[in-house]
Design brief:
Ferritin; Ferritin-like_SF; oxidoreductase activity
Length: 153
């Protein structure tokens, strides 16, 4: 029998990473249109990271029938996907520091989301995968913190 809890978790992951990718691509395009090249390139990189996560989720879920959830069926902590919640804070002339802080907020929200799934799931495999994803998001957040430290104002 298929693991329904894992399939539901992966459906959330696909949605979250898809929305994050779309958000970062839109932000990159917006920054490019305002000639904010360094921030556009940063958001392009974040979109690629989301794409890599999406591929990882697809690999884990290969052969599974993931549920097709309606918008109101997603269990988002703040009512929206964690990695796209900070996108409204972007301004055309934002600095690279501001862009990294925005992405850092998204990574921390994703880590918290995945971590909560790891804590509350009754399924061992779902807990394992969610904890793995939470650790990956924590690692991304750490990388962003290091990059912030290297930026001179």
């Amino acid at each position: 029998m298929a693991n329904e809890e894992l399939a539901r978790f992966l459906a959330h992951s696909v949605e979250m990473e898809s929305e994050a990718r779309a958000c970062y691509l839109a932000l990159a395009e917006r920054m490019r249109s305002h000639k904010n090249t360094s921030v556009a390139e940063f958001f392009d990189r974040m979109a690629r990271e989301s794409q890599l996560h999406l591929e990882e989720v697809s690999e884990i879920g290969a052969g599974m029938d993931l549920p097709l959830l309606n918008d109101d069926e997603f269990d988002w902590p703040e009512g929206e996907s964690p990695e796209s919640s900070a996108s409204g804070q972007a301004t055309p002339n934002m600095s690279l520091r501001e862009a990294i802080l925005l992405a850092l907020e998204n990574e921390r929200a994703a880590k918290k989301f995945y971590g909560s799934f790891a804590e509350i799931s009754s399924d061992t495999e779902t807990r394992r995968v969610a904890a793995q994803f939470a650790a990956e998001e924590a690692s991304h957040a750490e990388q962003l913190v290091k990059r912030l430290a290297s930026i001179k104002d």
